Every structure is written in structure tokens, then in C-alpha cells.
Amino acid sequence: MIARLLAFLVVLWALGFALFALTLPRPADDRPTDAIVVLTGGAGRLDRGLDLLARHRAQRLFVSGTDRTVRKSELALRTHRPAALFDCCVDLGQESVDTRSNAIETTRWLRAHHYATVRLITTDWHMPRAHADLARELGRDPVVIIPDAVRSHPSLLTLFTEYHKYVLRRIAAPFGY
Q1: CATH number of 25-153
Q2: What is the pTM of this model?
Q3: Which of 41, 17, 27, 51 is nearest to 165 (CA)?
């Protein structure tokens, strides 16, 4: 009986991993939202957000998880964007250190600005966990989250690690962890 249960759990895990790896989120369409949130840490994320902001697809952009030493002027130079775009419409979040604290930091920012729609930009393999954490943190707030995944070519190890983080987060979250 125990062997069957363990075999069932292994098959369930394997199917879950396959589903996770084969159904990575895709980029969203360019429909307008009130705000854009970019989670730092992956190639193409900030560029995607800035492109949408420059095309007036949102009022403001929030970059969650920036280092405390980063300044808007430096980002403007590094991304080859006008400093005026950063001055008027970009906020830097410098309190978060991981996906869970990104969700906390982002929720505070969204509530402070009273936004009803937000485009969440992160890498495709990171989106399931980031989206789940943000939705959980927002709770009953009437904010519509549009997942906008930046495509990548993750290694098997990256997918394996992220799948386990996602599963553990889904198990731990209801217990307040």
C-alpha cells in the first residue's frame, strides 16, 4: 500500500512538472493597464516594461527589487531611454529581496496609487509563482493582474528549481509562510 502511494505521488509530481514546463506563460497583448510592474532579475523584463510605458500603455511603471544604490538617471543611461520618462513615470522599489517581498512591495505601491489594473512583467518560468504571490498579497483588493511573461530559454535545472519553489509556496502560503 505504501509503495503504491509513493508511486502515485511520484507520477503526480512528474505530471505536475511536465505541465509546468510545457505551459509556461506567454507575453500578453499590448492592451492598456493603469500600471506596469517589473520584477528585477531577468533579461528583457525592464525593456519590455519601458517599451510599453513609452507607448502609453500605462500611466506609471514600478520596478520592484532594485538595489538601493540604483538611481533613475543610471537606469535611463543603461537602457538608452530619456531621463524624462523615468522622472515622470517610473518608481523604484528598493525594499524587496525575493518574490514574496516583491508582492508585498508591489501591493503597497498599487494601493497607494489606487490602481485597478496592473501588468505584471517577469520571466516566463517565474510568472506562476510571482502571479500567485501578488494575487495572494492583494487579497480582496479589486486589482486585475495581467501576466506578461518575457520569453526565455530556461535550463532544465532552472525549471526544476522553480517548479519546486512554486509547489512549496502553494503549500506554505495558506499557513502564512
Answers
A1: 3.40.50.620
A2: 0.91
A3: 17
